[in-house]
Amino acid sequence: MAELILDIKDLAVEYTSDKDIVKAVNGIDLSIEEGMTLGLVGETGAGKTTTALTIMGLLPENQSRVRRGEVLVNGKNVLQMKEKELEDLRGNLVSMIFQDPMSSLNPVKTVGEQIAEVIKIHEHLSDSDALIRAREMLETVGIPGERAGEYPHQFSGGMKQRVLIAIALACSPKLLLADEPTTALDVTIQAQVLELMKGLKDKFKTSMLMITHDFGIVAEVCDEVSVMYAGYIIEHGNLVDIFDNRRHPYTQGLFDSLPNIDDRKAKLKPIHGLTPDPVNLPSGCPFHPRCDYCMDVCKEMMPEKRQINDTHYVRCHLYNETTENRLNRDEE
Question: pTM higher than 0.70, yes or no?
């Protein structure tokens, strides 16, 4: 078995304000082996970004709380690390590419300075040596090294995203967190950036957590997929499990919402209703108010994991042994 780079166990995270408690993540398990790419898929507000920020130790201190769980990166629990240990972790062992390249770079520093800063912190090089490495990283992501002295406003959106990738990979991290890295880019540039990320991931032997809502990206770059809804992982499997043998009604609904390129006249089947308010989640399975297969038990109990095969599990009462036995008795 390959080495586990990331191992999340029963992680639950909430945000607090004066009146409300937002239940953002509700007891998830995730694991990523060395060299593997895991896709984390779900609608806005599912808890995907909160999961990534927890891995990086970047949750806002006064407004968030980890209720329970472990986040092991290379065998060490991030949740027990002091600030100095977290600083050593970020950029060195784990790096993150954020959603919006337009606002993720410092506008008053050259791109070379911003790449070199990471290298100086973790590899203790001189300013001149770090800048040489920064130019090399720019070349690696397809940008001429002489542009290291330019500022972010002199780059296009796609080029800024390449700079962010260069910063993230500058110290050859073991784990790369990519939070919808192509959302702000047009389709042609998206394809180029994804192809670049795939190549660099293999070159640097980096594992990756790809956060997205786009199954096209999942099919392109991921080995396994976790489908997230209202802070829960409701289905997990490899690409064959999820694309060809999906079981959860929500996962099926996501696929039904995609255009059919083979039948241009086919109508989309959107999932009715809205994602639940994380301040006031429904009882039982959080998807039950939107589910066409809702049963009484769905309103009362959150389903346990049901293993479909060695790589595939689902949390749905349609595949729960207790429910199946009850349904069979009712039919008799």
Answer: yes
Residue 41: other Cβ atoms inside 10 A:
24
The answer for 283, left when phi > 0, alpha when psi is -120 to 50, beta otherwise, is: beta
CA pair distance 211, 225, nearest whole angstrom: 10
- Per-residue model confidence as pLDDT tens digits over 18-70: 789 999 999 999 999 999 999 999 998 899 999 999 999 999 988 999 999 99
State how far the Cα of 272 lies from the Cα of 280, in Å rounded to an integer: 19
Structure tokens at 102: 């337009």
Kindly report the number of other CB atoms within 10 A of residue 86's CB atom: 14
DSSP letter for each residue of 20-82: -EEEEEEEEEEEEETT-EEEEE--TTSSHHHHHHHHHT-S-TTTEEEEEEEEEETTEEGGG--
* Cα distances (Å, whole numbers) of residue 109 to 44, 100, 145, 168, 173: 32, 18, 16, 17, 23
DSSP string, 144-174: -GGGGGS-GGGS-HHHHHHHHHHHHHTT--S
13: nearest Cα among 229, 209, 232: 232
